Prior knowledge:
The chain is an alpha+beta fold and about 170 residues long. It contains six helices and eight strands. Helix content is about 40%, strand content about 25%.
Amino acid sequence: MEIQKQYDGKTASKDDKPADNTLLNPTEDLDEARELVASDEARRIAAAIAASGLDKKAAGVEVIDVTGKVDYAELLVLMTGRSDRHVHAIAKGVQEDLKREHGIAPLSVEGLSAAQWVLLDFNDVVVHVFQQDTRTFYDIEGLWIDAQRVSVPHPPPRDEARAAAKDE
Length: 168
């Protein structure tokens, strides 16, 4: 596999020298990518998704930062439902909450009819809603064992938050 990098609009391979006569160092480039973190906007969306999932009683909510490791997302949000109906309700609830509260709709939704594993693509944030057996089988967390985890805020349930807001 040939490693290439852009220098001043020209493509260079690992054997070429850029204009400043330094050699390309693929390991250094990977180290730089590892230091990247998800954007504030992606983190805000992921937090809203996690809160929505928790509000729908999703279990095992986890946010994984894959910035610089893949080109299709910055964050993955994983969560589990107890049954196909629960997975379906979580996925639909996340869609509705994000649309209503943040004006964001997913670019794509896959697996909603079977509800074993539903994927919601919010561009920089990809959501996986699983049934437990499916989550265990595919082990997405294991695939990204070296990726940084983002803490998931555990807000009070919406009904309590709304009641508190009305009291103020």
